[in-house]
Amino acid sequence: MAMPVEPPLILAFILLFIIIKWGHNSFKKSRLGPKLPPGPSPWPIVGNIPELYKNKPPFYWIDGIMKKLNTDVACFRLGSVHVIVVNSPQVAREFLHNHDDKLASRPFTMATELSSRGFLSMAVSPWGPHSGRDGAVVDVRTALRHYAINVVRKVVFNTRYFGEGGKDGGPGEEEKEHVKAIFTILRHLYAFCVSDYLPWLRVLDIDNHEKIVKEALGVMNKYHDPIIEERITKRRINGEKQGPQDLLDVMISLKDATGQPLLSEEEIKAQCIELFFGVDSPTTSLEWAVAQMINKPEIQQKAVDEIDRVVGKGRLVQESDIPQLNYVKACVKESLRLHPITPFNLPHVSMSNVVVGGYFIPKGSHILLGRRGLGRNPKVWQEPLEFKPERYFNDDQSSKIELMEPELRLVTFSSGKRACPGIALGTALSVIALGRILQGFAWSVPENEGKIDLTEAPNEFEMAKPLHAHASPRLPATTYPITS
């Protein structure tokens, strides 16, 4: 008579087989050809996920491991995925310049799947077919966030407001809710999520990531979808729109070779959401820039002198001034270097095995360029923790400053085939915003405070306390735009 096999015994044999198979593969890889980059020893099946989950935010643990190993390239295994972190400009250039075609994909993650409506947008999808005259204290973070999103809202939907706006010409409750939803999604877009590496755990929604992202997307859809649907319906009834067009009109009007709409309604909705995801870079970096320049008034004055020389006081800074505002651009670039919005760039996924920097990078690996690791690498930068815009100039101060960094000594915008599609808009938005902030007001520490506190938030790269600073108008009253 056959003895019944207990289920726990079956599970034990399955687990033993997986461990032996994993060990055999690891041994085989260690003997053949180039090795993986150094990194912490992974656990069977789950890899380094327990350490990442225990040590939050994960970046500080990753940074500590790389310092302990004395390496600028490291490998962390999350589930079955090799995550390669790069803090070396030389290796970063080799990845994105020499092997760009093999690293053009993006990872499948819960947040990107939801925000792109099932990967229908471009940037996050895997590679595939598609105040009074005496001055006042100002909340700089809130002002910058609404300024940046107003610009994108105007470009995409040709409106500043979803409702009637505030009585003072500022944002109304609808705009405040919209801004809050955007920054909620941005915080979770590429945050560490266990189920992205162990998909069978997604049903548990650990840390409520999926619930939070869905609720925020619901807010964005509430404001975006009616405008998009109404515009598409009008186009079908009335044909081509006469007069000025916004970006939504352009997307609706695109046709394929047969004369059919190039983008479906769902694809247009996904693209419109993605266009708002670029606002975090100028808002976060400019808040840090203003804070640094208040604490270092000689830098603020140098930037103001350049603006007065190039633009004057009779009009505001505009896009055509950007090529001549090199010191202002250097201030923006220095803030992006020292205070990146995220620890890493958007991940690249290797579509085949490749050897980079002498290391074996398996197919399916996630490649992360360390924004903070590159920007603060003492092997690359002198006094890396100091805010010094002058570092980008030649001795004669004649350099023409660009925010893009082709040598990848720092990551301002993404590079390669999956480069940020909004580089021009991001550059213009950042430089014009900082230029007008400095041109319009003299910024100083609020009364009874010594210096601006530059402490970082514990789990993010924002300032721990939103920047509140004293702003005194420095232009004639007629130069400021009047909001009616």
- Largest sheet: number of strands, sense, barrel closure: 4 strands, mixed
Q: What is the CATH architecture annotation? A: Orthogonal Bundle
What's the pLDDT, averaged over the residues?
A: 83
CATH homologous superfamily label: Cytochrome P450
| Percent helix | 40-55%
Strand order of the largest sheet: 1-2-7-4
Question: Which fold name corresponds to the CATH topology?
Answer: Cytochrome p450
Query: Per the principal axes of the C-alpha atoms, what is the gross shape?
Result: globular
| Total domain count | 1
- The gyration radius over C-alpha positions equals 25 Å
What's the end-to-end separation, in Å?
Answer: 92 Å
Q: Encode the helix/strand succession as letters.
A: HHHEEHHEHHHHHHHHEEEEHHEE
Got a strand count?
9
What structural class is derived from the secondary structure elements? alpha+beta
Strand coverage percent? 5-15%
Low-confidence stretches: 27-31, 127-133
Number of helices: 15
Binding site for heme: 420
InterPro entries: Cyt_P450, Cyt_P450_CS, Cyt_P450_E_grp-I, Cyt_P450_sf
Organism: Coffea canephora
Keywords: Heme, Iron, Metal-binding, Monooxygenase, Oxidoreductase
Pick out its properties.
484 residues; alpha+beta; Cytochrome p450; 4-stranded mixed sheet; 3-stranded antiparallel sheet; 9 strands; globular
Describe the structure.
With 484 residues, the protein is an alpha+beta fold. It has a single domain (136-479), classed as Cytochrome P450 (Cytochrome p450), CATH 1.10.630.10. Helix content is 43%, strand content 8%. It has helices at residues 7-31, 49-54, 58-69, 89-98, 110-115, 140-157, 173-189, 209-238, 247-253, 265-275, 280-295, 297-310, 326-338, 371-375, 423-440; strands at 73-78, 81-86, 136-139, 348-349, 354-356, 359-361, 366-369, 441-444, 468-473. The chain has a four-stranded mixed beta sheet with strand order 1-2-7-4. Strands 3-9-8 form a three-stranded antiparallel beta sheet. A two-stranded antiparallel sheet has the order 5-6. Strand 1 (73-78) and strand 2 (81-86) form a beta hairpin. Helix 12 (297-310) packs antiparallel against helix 13. The model is unreliable at 27-31 and 127-133 (pLDDT under 50).
